[in-house]
Design goal:
This protein has 5 domains: about 325 residues, 3-Layer(aba) Sandwich (Rossmann fold), CATH 3.40.50.970; about 70 residues; about 180 residues, 3-Layer(aba) Sandwich (Rossmann fold); about 35 residues, no CATH class; about 160 residues, Rossmann fold, CATH 3.40.50.920. It is built from 35 helices and 20 strands. Helix 28 links the parallel strand 13 and strand 14. Helix 3 runs antiparallel to helix 18 and helix 34 packs antiparallel against helix 35. The chain starts with 19 loop residues before the first helix and ends with a helix. One of its GO terms (molecular function) is pyruvate dehydrogenase (acetyl-transferring) activity. Pfam families: PDH_E1_M, Transketolase_C_1, Transketolase_N.
Amino acid sequence: MPDPVRLPYSQLDQLPDRDPEETAEWRESLDAVTKAAGPHRAAYLMRRALEHNGAPGLAPLETDYVNTIPTSAEPAFPGDEAMEARITAWNRWNAAAMVTRGSRFGVGGHIATFASAAWLYETGFQHFFRGKEGDGSGDQLYIQGHASPGIYARAFLDGRLTEDHLDHFRQESGGKGLPSYPHPRRLPWLWEFPTVSMGLGPLSAIYQARFNRYLQGRGIKDTAGSHVWAFLGDGEMDEPESTAALALAGREGLDNLTFVINCNLQRLDGPVRANFKIVQELEAQFRAAGWNVVKSLWGSAWDQLFQLDTTGALVRRLRQVPDAQFQTYATRDVAYIREHFFGAEPALVEMAKVLTDVKIAECFHTSRGGHEARKVYAAYKAAVEFKGAPTVILAQTVKGYTLGPGFESKNANHQMKKLSGKEFRAMRDLLDLPIPDARLDEDLVPYGHPGADSPEVRYLQERRAALGGPAPARRLHASAALPQPEERAFKALLKGSGKQEMATTMAFVRLVKDLMRDKETGRRWVPIVPDEARTFGMESLFPSAGIYSPKGQTYEPVDRDQLMYYKEATDGQILNEGITEAGAMADFIAAATSYATHGEPMIPFYIFYSMFGWQRTADQMWQLADQLGKGFIVGATAGRTTLTGEGLQHADGHSHLIASTNPASLNYDPAFAYEIAVIVKDGLRRMYGETAEFPTGEDVFYYLTVYNEPKQQPAMPEGVEEGIVKGLYRFKEAANATSETPRTQLLASGTAIHWALEAQRLLAEDWDVAADVWSATSWGELRRDALACDAARLEGEDRIPYVTRALAGAPGPVVAVSDWMRAVPDQIAPWVEQDWTSIGTDGFGLSDTREAARRHFGVDAQSVVVQTLAALARRGEVKPETVKEARQRYGL
């Protein structure tokens, strides 16, 4: 990581120096120490001095509650301030009008967030945010979810949306509505990143910036020009995901990343840090993680006050006042501020005597750094020019700014969904918009637009053209489709393992290793693992593919003399994230959406303990679906009884049930290696192939569960590919079936196929019952197909579900078994015409041997036999006492 740049200014430049001669002496002393003993000695002495003093506020992680960039150090503003103010005014108005007009339908919306952050967005759109024209990447913008009305208002101004669109805000069922928040699946030409599930935006932004570096390091795409901007609220920073990866960004020097935190000091229903100061807390937190921090707190009206602060009393007082009290100052009259703020110290009382009421009101009510284009521009310019570390901008604003005293800094403004006519008049006058009173007397407040050929629109469009086109924008690229890999990569699994035993986890890793050698698509695979790669047999990838690290390998690995040593490299292909499933999922999302973000389709596969996937990071799985991501999520060491000895927290019997709730997730529980080969091959075709309906592939992702139980892997029977993909096929027909023999159908998924096969043998040998064994590769896909058939029949189409057709005419009852809770196979019960019985692993997991755990849950082969006999007894096909006899024989 390069050394961070030395700033050409000091935060202290804006404050009077009580003793410049003393300051010069300190500087000279430090210069002398640095020259004689080096900078490390000088830093050591400074730290010793700070530790010795021990006074609050002298910690090096926290600076005074003033702007980082003094007004005197602000760069020249390159734009037309008056023009940009008019553009911002139109956007403020239309955002408020859109939500207010929609409130008559009760659909809600948020007004106060964009009102506070308008200049944070507008300055970026006018001068910094790069569009996608040209290299197709541009900048990546993570827009704060509640600010979406302002983004829609801007798209309306530049002609990308119409009044009709705005009038369908939060009314999507008709097909032309605008989603409430940034939802790429609902508005895929505009939004790139879903952010309103708070905390996931900042986490994903960090890993997106890191993935941009990964693409660069591997030579896949030059992303040096792409910058990631994440817009966040100070209340959102309470979410653990918001700060979970700050150290990663600092450690890897991601200077292609900027966080812009809108510090209006308010959460949804009250102050963020009522008795403390959120800005100071965040500054220390980010500095400790290695970030560059830029504070833009006060507007230019405060410059006079700081120049008068010759004793430091003002700066001390600003540090003392808690956030909730400062929020109160923003709503109270000048007399209150004079008494409660300036009355705290004699020096402040004297300062207040030379300040007019107008000046005090301006400073405490509205003058904030986040409301002035020049200060926002200075902060952004400092951020993009800083090298060696990511930057966080802490911009202070007033929530509900320009919406009037009924909104500004009120605890309830998050729930306030409309302005009154009187409030709109006041807002119109404040923003100086040419909207006549007559229009405001109408039932609906009007939208405002200066005209498609107006100076405002021309200026806006010229600025966007100079920056590379519209933003935000999501675009698909012709290169998003990939050729299918060569067949030889799949052949090893299709022919089986012979007498050698192999777990399906190992089979999947072996397949991916072979696919990574494919000439056309091999380099596009992105293996992702949250530590424990060796658990999943992935150590064989270390020396060949390498683990990505921006520093390469600066040490000699302890296992360097071994064949499968731990190899890190700047062009490494594996993303080994350490113990962070959330980080690994953020990696996956960045890779899974690279086909749109960068025009570079990547094939991520993320492998993990299945218990620590959907249960732990299901919100990110929804984020993945919303962002239209593609790839393979692999729940390894799956099942509630298959992972021996690990106990309750590791025993997954329900991830398929959670996964079934996500419409974009195609969920498979393969039993054999050849099934994995067929599923992965079909997944590559569906997600990355080109068809007339899906020119860049379907917007789905795959969830596969694989097991760590070694078994002999059979060769693929003929003609089963369709059944594997659709979710069910007959694997082994009963050998003892006659017209007199009781018949049954055993459906099993994953490792449970082996219990079903043993049960088939026991039923034949001990009870003269003939059982066919079916491999149910996907309970979820069977249900998805059945639901689609039901919907089609309502429209007059004669469609029969695949599961019904597959089992048609199969004699006897159906018994379904898996290493999952019964609700997983029960998903298909309504479409099975035969008598239905399911058994599974409901309840909490436990530590024991596989055999004991399966007996405990009643899913071992003997338990399957007893359940089958019970199902036949209910039909009168075996005697009831046979069930009791079987229980006794097997010790159940």
